[in-house]
Amino acid sequence: MADSNPMEAFLSLSALLTGYTKTDLLATGLAGQYYDKLSSIVDEDICGALWTATREAMKGLGIRPKVAERRIRKLVLSNAMLAPLAINIIAMWYLSSWSQLPQAWRSLYGAKANDVDHVISAEAYQEGLVWQAIGAHPQGAKQQGYGAWGLPPPWKLSPPWKRKKPRLKRRRRAA
Amino acid sequence: MEGKNDSGKTYDVVIVGAGIAGAILAKVLGNAKKHVLILEAGRSTSFTVEGYRSFLETFYRASAKVPNSPYPNDPSAPQPDVLNIGRIEPGVPSASGYFVQRGPLPFASDYARTRGGTTLHWLGTCLRMTPNDFHMKSRYGQGENWPITYDELRPYYEQAELEIGVSADVDDQRFHGITFGKNYHYPMRRIPQSYLDHYLASRLEDFAVNMPGQAERIKLHFSSIPQGRNSIPNAGYRPVGHTGDNNIGQRCEGNSSCVPICPVQAKYNALKTLKKVDPDYVEIRSQAVASKIEIDPDSGRVTGITYNTYGAGAAPGPLTARGKIYVIAAHSIETAKLLLASQACRTSGEVGRNLMDHIEIIVWALAPEGDPIGAFRGPGATTNINSFRDGAFRARHSGFNVPIGNWGWSWSCFSPGSDLMDFIGRSQPVLGRDLRRRLYDRVSRQMELWFELEQNPCATNRVTIDPEYRDSMGNFRPVIHYGLSDYVRKAMPVARRISEQIFRRIGAKDYTHYNSTDPCYVTYRNQGFFYRGAGHVVGTHRMGSNRFESVVNDKQRTWDHDNLYLAGCGNMPTLGTSNPTLTMAALTFWAGENILKELNR
Amino acid sequence: MPAEPGKIPAPIRNIRELHAHLQTALEVEHSTIPPYLCALYSIKDGLNLEAAELIRSVVMEEMLHMILVANVLNAIDGKPNLTHAKFVPHYPAYLRHSNRAFVISLEKFSPTSVDTFLKIERPGKAGAPVERGEYATLGQFYQHIKKGLKDVCKANKYFNGKASKQITSEYYYGGGGDPIRVSNVDDACGALDVITDQGEGIRNSITDGDHQIFHQGKELAHYFRFKEIALGRYYTGKDTPKSGPTGTALPVDWNGVYNMRPNPKTGYYPQGTDLWVKSRQFCRAYRDLLARLEDGMNGQPERLIAAVAGMYDLKYKAVALMKTPCDDSGMTAGPSFEYVPPNE
Question: Which tens digits make up the pLDDT trace of A89-104?
Answer without folding.
Answer: 999 999 999 999 999 9
